[in-house]
Design goal:
Shape: globular
Radius of gyration: 30 Å
Number of strands: 25
CATH architecture of the largest domain: 3-Layer(aba) Sandwich
Strand content: 15-25%
Strand order of the largest sheet: 14-13-23-22-21-15-20-19-16-18-17
Low-confidence stretches: none
Number of domains: 4
Distance between the termini: 43 Å
CATH topology of the largest domain: Rossmann fold
CATH superfamily of the largest domain: P-loop containing nucleotide triphosphate hydrolases
Largest sheet: 11 strands, mixed
Oligomer: single chain
Helix content: 25-40%
Length: 568
């Protein structure tokens, strides 16, 4: 299940003239019975809401006062997200003829008093902001809105916003709808809300919410996936610069290639993209390759096996990614560890929808060909799995069959497809490429009529950092180094990285510098040895300019240091 909760606005969404119809109440009850939770997100004060809405216990959390207060109906607990308003602010409004409604945090009035409200905020030097909602003028502490309140409620419930659908109708709903994975506007919503919604219901208010709930129960809003392009995960770009993307939910990937071919680099780029989009991931890491991955906590080491319960506890936090290092577990015991861990991951997913992705590095260690599949009776329901292996034919067929996308890297990519076919029996597309350069991969979407195609992978930040260090202050081989020789070949000054290149450049005579500059030697070195097309293009401009050796040295130094010295 992708959508584990529905976040609803009150007035104008589930309620009409302050009350909710029996049919809408019945639909909300059916949604709860489907295993989903309900969150009410309203601009109303809690006391007012309790008076007009006797069914508030249908909701697991209530975000009131436009995000400033979060309420737990089951326990009557309240949590303030912002500070109560200063009394001097309320007194000054009244002194200027405004009679505000005052909540625990919110101060509200109606148009046309907005100008007076803004003047008082300015005159008193307060850090507050004004929110408009169909004629209402609401004043809240800076940074407090419906999205802020919903974030707290989700944290309290253990849900990621990626597993939430939201529905609303007015200006103050825009912030929380933008937070939700899927945003819905009822038919009576303002045009500005409809413009950004993923779905506009046919019915107004409660009828529209009933329509949405029916879709959630029937198919988990699956028909809306084509509209959610903004959530797609970038894998790389085709030869024609078209993007290669995959849905964040319901997809599985197999990555294969020879040792050192770039499998981990591809996976790391994908994981960094997941982290950037705030999708949670868990990596099962038999070889300790992800110990230094940014944005993840590592459990286990070469000296101690990870504890299943400890990994699950960490994953209970929706903003925490986890790496389980299995080096402390003997090779023959790793399938058993995974057999014990996966059901607990699945239970967490069933309850919360997380972790969104599970990465099985060295998948043949975890789900080998001879694995007893009776312990994995639920594996046909697996989704959001990335399997990484040298030999697809060494992986359990039940897991291989789940792969939607096959990615081959390194030498002999045709081997990946033939090896995959050995186990699954599925005919694979022909492959004519014999060797893939670093940063290139071959992809095949199994359900597509298109054959395998080449693409440039999405480089990882850590790979870029290694690239910068290598060329900035590493040790390049003789065939990659730059040699300052001069017009008559009397010199033989070897620069085996960029920093040494800059040092030598400052010391060589002007004649030697200009000799290499005008011949285009520098731009060729940057393009073919350093593999930096941007730096090469910048240098070509310098090579054509009529400037002094001193000026060209300074401009080249600035360009190199901008690209390499600062990041290192």
């Amino acid at each position: 299940m992708r959508y584990h909760a529905l976040a609803c606005d009150y007035d104008g969404t589930i309620a009409e003239n302050g009350s909710v119809s029996p049919d809408c109440i019945s639909a909300l009850e059916r949604l709860r019975a489907s295993g989903r939770m309900l969150i009410l997100v309203t601009g109303r004060r809690l006391g007012d809401l309790l008076q007009v809405f006797p069914h508030i216990t249908l909701f697991d959390r209530v975000v009131a006062e436009n995000g400033a207060l979060v309420y737990r109906p089951a326990t009557y607990e309240e949590k303030l997200i912002g500070e109560p308003p200063p009394q001097e602010f309320i007194d000054e409004l009244r002194a200027r003829g405004v009679s505000p409604s005052v909540g625990r945090v919110i101060v509200a009035t109606w148009e046309p008093h907005q100008a007076t409200v803004v003047e008082v905020i300015r005159d008193l030097g307060l850090e507050m902001h004004v929110v408009f909602n169909k004629g209402a003028v609401m004043v809240l502490p800076s940074g407090v809105n419906k999205a802020a309140g919903l974030k707290y409620a989700l944290y309290d419930l253990g849900f990621s916003a990626h597993n939430i659908a939201g529905v609303g109708d007015a200006e103050n709903d825009h912030a929380f709808l933008s937070l939700c994975e899927c945003s819905v506007a009822v038919a009576n919503a303002l045009p500005a809300i409809k413009k950004h919604a993923d779905l506009i219901t046919g019915g107004e208010r409660g009828e529209g919410v009933i329509e949405l709930i029916n879709k959630m129960i029937a198919n988990d809003l699956r028909e809306l996936e084509p509209r959610l392009k903004r959530h797609e995960l970038l894998l790389g770009t085709r030869e024609d610069d078209g993007e290669i993307c995959i849905q964040p939910y319901g997809s599985n990937i197999l990555v294969s290639g020879t040792s050192g071919s770039g499998k981990s680099t591809f996976a790391t780029g994908f994981l960094e993209h997941l982290g950037k989009k705030k999708y949670q991931f868990c990596i099962i890491d038999p070889e300790g390759d992800y110990d230094k991955l940014e944005g993840a906590v590592v459990v286990g080491s070469s000296k101690s096996a990870p504890i299943v319960e400890g990994g699950i506890r960490l994953l209970e936090r929706y903003d925490q990614n986890v790496v389980l290092n299995l080096l402390g577990i003997p090779l023959e015991d790793r399938p058993s560890f995974f057999r014990d861990f996966l059901p607990k991951l699945q239970e967490l997913r069933t309850r919360t929808g997380r972790p969104h992705w599970i990465v099985l590095d060295e998948a043949h260690h975890l789900v080998p060909l001879n694995l007893d599949m009776s312990s994995f009776a639920f594996c046909q329901n697996l989704y959001g799995i990335m399997m990484i292996t040298v030999h697809p034919s060494h992986v359990s067929p039940s897991f291989l069959f789940a792969a939607d996308l096959i990615v081959a890297v390194g030498e002999s990519p045709e081997y990946v497809f033939t090896d995959f076919s050995k186990t699954t029996g599925q005919a694979t597309p022909p492959v004519t490429v014999r060797r893939l350069e670093p940063g290139k991969a071959l992809a095949w979407f199994r359900q597509s009529h298109e054959g395998a195609f080449l693409f440039r992978t999405n480089p990882s930040h850590s790979a870029r950092q290694r690239h910068l260090r290598k060329y900035a202050d590493g040790l390049l081989g003789p065939d990659k180094s730059f040699y300052f020789r001069g017009p008559e070949g009397k010199l033989n000054l070897k620069a085996y990285n960029l920093m040494l290149f800059l040092q030598i450049a400052e010391g060589v005579d002007d004649e030697t510098w200009l000799y290499h500059l005008k011949r285009g030697d520098f731009s060729r070195w940057f393009r073919f040895s350093i593999k930096d097309e941007n730096l090469a293009a910048h240098t070509e401009k310098l090579e054509r300019m009529d400037i002094s050796p001193r000026e060209s040295r300074a401009l080249m130094k600035e360009a190199i240091e901008d690209r390499y010295k600062a990041p290192v």
